[in-house]
Every structure is written in structure tokens, then in C-alpha cells.
Amino acid sequence: MKKNKKAVKRLPPSRPALFGHGEAKPLIIAGVAIVAVLALSLLLLFSDQFVGKAFLTGTEMQPTAGIADPGQIFGGQYAVIPIKANIQNEQTVAIEFELPLPGGLQCAGVDSFVSNLGWDSTVFAEASCSNDVLYFKYATLDADQAKTGTFDVATLNYDALNDGTYNFQFNSFDIISLNIPNNDLINNGEPAQLVVELEVQMCGNGIQEAAELCDGTDFWNNQDSCQQINGAVYSGGMMGCKNDCTYDFTACEVVNSCGDGNVDQGEGCDDGNLVNGDGCSAACINEAQCGDGVLQEGEACDDDNNLNGDGCSEICAIESLCGNGALNEAEQCDDNNNLNGDGCSSTCQVEEVVPECTTNNDCQQGQQCVNGKCLTPLNLLDQDNDGIDTPEDNCPDTQSQDLTDTDGDGRGDVCDNCINTPNYGQEDADFDGVGDACDPDPQGVVCGNGVKEGNEVCDSGVNNDEPGFCNNQCNGMVPAPQCNSNNDCAQNEFCDNGVCVQQPEIAAAGTKISLTNTDSGNNFATKITATEDFSGTEITIWTILYDVNDKVLSIKSEKVPAGLAMNAEYTATSNYPAANVKQKSVIVYDKEQGSTVFGELTKDY
Predict the structure, then answer these.
(1) Are 121 and 40 in the same domain?
(2) Which segments of 101-208 are extended strands (E)?
(3) Which domain holds residue 34?
(4) DSSP tag of 261
(5) Percent of the chain scored above 70 by pLDDT?
């Protein structure tokens, strides 16, 4: 969001509005220092109904303020909207208003929002836009710069307005009297209707004018060649003109840009090179490519990848999956080999196994009939028939010639239920295929199901690992938070990740003084220490307390008529129930114009 905001010193410092929002208008504290008057006034302003729809003319018979006539504004053009006030013979040094932007306008469209008051010595200086609302707050201590009669307040410069009517209505417009600080000269701004007109254009009259690019055969700057308009894209051809007086590029000849990575007119593809065989030819024509998921000429299959072993090879040829141990389409069986005679053929079809023998008499001399097969005594030692005799076979029930035994427990990796952890007896209490030696839950205990089981200390289910509940390993509790917000902590503490932490001492350096926060309970205290001698110079100390909605709870003024000697201290206090206070703001200044002694401190709770 685009913002135009001056960063200046404010009183109290860094507030979005000096006093809170609600049914009451903002409370204004204006420091006005002149020879006859030295006061800091507080005014509670109540909302009034808006009346009238006219622009401010400056000839009104009573004090008023609002938007002045901006003159004729055409749609799509830069808009300058002045804001003025007429306070007759009165004088003012403090002005504040709040103006929501009408529907369709946003802060992002505000080019600038500036003060026209010309005050170079201010205690407030804000002209900003936030959440599509204009905020203006200016006050000066210099009575010589006071405004009177009709004067410019501010100017809103907007990038471009569309055709239509915009209703500007101020939420508030407050102008304070200089001579009677608690007298509000104006407490509302006059609403105004801003009409933005459509600039008349005669598209179709054959004459290129205003915002038109062309009209018939009349082109802007006489440029009717495609190459003149954009030689990087078009190599020739003449421009046309559409019915809405914009360019028609239909007849333009496009520059051959194959290989630039952009799919231009006449190109079926453009992969940023001029190489054939990669799916996009050197002429930017789509080529058949194995692995693109599209079955094209010359491909028996295309499964959108270039992997082997998934039924469609890296060259898009159908490959057999028989023998991989998984039952695939068209297979009746798959016994993880391509051997015939074992009940599942080499083509993975179920086959009838005819016993080779029923007794030893059916076998040759020296052979024995074992499970329907005639075997020599040597083969009797290889019960899984993988070519490795059983005494040397660390997986005697699984056909494999791989004798790797990573964990050295005598069980080959091919059949070991704990490959990296010795599990000599291959125990598996919960029958999940993972041996007890490497099973994180050998008894079938599930942490997180909300039921305390086996060796679990606790189990809070979906609340596991939350403060005050079981942790995510079910072996202990997560400590409950000491606090959820600053309200759960003592006056001088704040809540940090569930723990009440001691507030660091807050101090601020000013001119000839330093300010240190010394709160205790309901006593909001600030110690002022002189860093230079200003004996004989009276100072005023204001302590302002705010609630969570930025509304003022308490204002207290204290004076130190004799000033302070070097290193002397004075403590300003204000008592209020601490639970209601969310911020303290303190400002110190002397009564001399220009303030040779000054300091301010803000503390959040």
C-alpha cells in the first residue's frame, strides 16, 4: 500500500490518534504557548449529522471546512483535490480531520497528501493514508503562525479517477480556537460530491486526437508501419486501426524469433534453443518425445516418465513385469522368478506341477525323492534351491544368492527383520514384520491415540506436545504456560513465550533531562533527572494513561517552578488501576517559547 507520511515528533509520541475512537470523536491535546496563554487543553467532541453537498467557497457566514471546488476533472487524468477552511475572524493553531476515501478509491492511488498550513514549528505533524482513510493532524506552538479567515488546509493528489460521482464525507474535522483553547470552532467537515467527467473524444471521425492511438487512417505521429511501432517484434506490414481507435496488429509480419524461449505467432513451441530431438524442433515445431505422457507415432506406450521396470521402458516400449514378485495386469501369479515347473510359469501363468517322483524308486540310482523331485544328496542340503547349501545359506528359506549380513547377526539382509540392528532370534512380538530389536513400538503401543498404553507415561491424543499436555513421545508432560498475555503478569513484567519476564528499565534522553520509568503497582511514576543545570526555569510535566483502545484514562499535570540543578531529580506520579492501563505517555517542557528543556517517554504494558 502506498503511504505518504511525514515522520515527525508528536505529543504524546507515536499515537495512531491522540485520543481513542468510538462514539466520541478524538480528544485533542494541543500545546499552545504564547505570552498571555500557556495551556494544554483536552476536548471531547461528539459526532454531528452532516448537512449540505456543496464545495467550500470561502464566503460562508459561519466557520466551516471541507473540500474546495477542484474545477473540471476528466476520467483517467491526475486529480488535485484541495481542502480549505473558513473560520471568519477567529484564530487557530490546531487542526485535525479524518476523511474516508469514497468507494473505489484506495490509499494505493494516492500520489501525495500534504499540509498547506506552512507551519514550520509543530508539536503534531501528520498527513497520511491508512486503510483507505486520510488522517490529518497538525498543531503549532507558534502563535505568530496562527491561521484566520479562509485558508488552505491540505491537498490530496490522486493518480487518476474513473468517470463517476464520489461522495466525500468527513468522519471529523476539528479546528481549535487559539484564544479559548477549549472552544471548538468546527467539529465537522462539510460533505461534497465530486463529479469526474468523461473527456469527449470523437473516435471514428477520422482524426487522431487526445488519447486515441489512431482513427481510421490517421495514426499518432504518422506512425502506421508495424516496424515503426515495434521493430523488435515485427519485421514488416502496415498497422490497422480498430473501432475503438487502438492499434490492430493483424497484418503485421512477426520477426522469426524461434529459440528465444517465447512461443510467438506461428510457433508451436519454443524451448529456448535450436536443437532437434528434444521435443521442440529447430523450427519451433512440436516433436514426439518419449516420456511426455502422450502416445505418439512410434511409441508402444508412454507412462509420462523415462524409467525402466514399470511396464513401459525408457524408450516407450512395453516391458514384461513377470518375475518381479508383484501381481500385475494379465498375470495369474508372480513367484519372484522366471522359472517353469514351480507352479508359476516363466510368463507368470498358473501351471500344473506334475510330481517327478512319489518314491525313491522313481528316481535314478543315488537320488532321493524329495517333495516330488529327484535330488542328489548334495541338493538335499539346499532346501530353498538357490544354489547355496543350507549350512552356508543365511537365508535358507528364501531364494537368494546375496549373503550380505549388515548387522552380523547371522541372518542375511534379504530375510532379516532388523537389517541394521542384531536380532538373533528374529523376535517380532507384534507381528508387524519389524523385529523387536529395531521396532520403536514392539508391543504395538501407539503414542498419540489418546490411550496410555505399555510403557507410556501419558498420552493426550491430538493435544500431544501442547502446553499443559503430554509430549509427542508420550514420556512426559509439556509444562503449562505461566502466562498467556501481559495481563497474567505483574505490573513490571511482560509475558514472553508463556513465561513472565521482568520488564527492562525504560529510559529516554531529552534536552537537559533524562526520563526513567519507575512504576510500582497502581502508581505510574517517572523520574526526571537533570543532565544540565536549568535552575530557575519552570518546567511542566504531563502524564497521560491510555487503555487498550487508545482512549485516555487519566491526564495529570505537574509543575516544577524552580527548575532543577545538575543531577537533581523529580518524580512525577499518576495513580490508576494498573489492569486497565495499556500505555503511559510522559512529556516534559519549559514555558519558554522554543522549549530549551524537553523530553518524552512512552511505555507499553
Answers:
(1) yes
(2) 110-115, 122-130, 133-140, 147-158, 164-168, 172-177, 184-186, 192-196
(3) 28-196
(4) S
(5) 79
Question: With contact defined as beta carbons under 8 Å apart, do 169 and 137 qualify?
Answer: no
Q: Are 197 and 163 in contact (CB under 8 A)?
A: yes
- In angstroms and rounded to an integer, the radius of gyration of the C-alpha atoms of the chain is 44
Question: For residue 89, what is its C-alpha cell?
Answer: 475572524
The verdict on residue 518 lying in a domain is yes
Give the pLDDT confidence of 411-442 residue by residue, as tens digits. 899 899 999 998 888 887 766 678 888 887 77
Burial of 214 (0-12, 13-18, 19+ CB in 10 A): buried
Whole-angstrom Cα distance, residue 513 to residue 507?
11
Helices (H), 187-279: 226-229
Q: What is the arithmetic mean of pLDDT over 200-225?
A: 76
How many CA atoms, within 13 angstroms, populate the side-chain half-sphere of residue 107?
16
Within-domain flag for 169: yes
Do residues 230 and 124 share a domain? no
Which pLDDT tens digit goes with each residue over 126-179?
Answer: 999 999 999 999 988 888 899 998 999 999 999 887 777 888 888 888 888 777
Does a structural domain hold residue 424?
Answer: no
Instruction: Quote the number of domains for the chain.
Output: 4
185 and 46 in a single domain? The answer is: yes
10 pLDDT higher than 70: no
Are residues 178 and 237 part of one domain? no
Tell the burial category of 546 from Cβ atoms under 10 Å away from its Cβ (0-12, 13-18, 19+): buried
**Shared domain check, 174 and 248:** no
Whether 566 shows a pLDDT value over 90: the answer reads yes
State the pTM of this model: 0.32
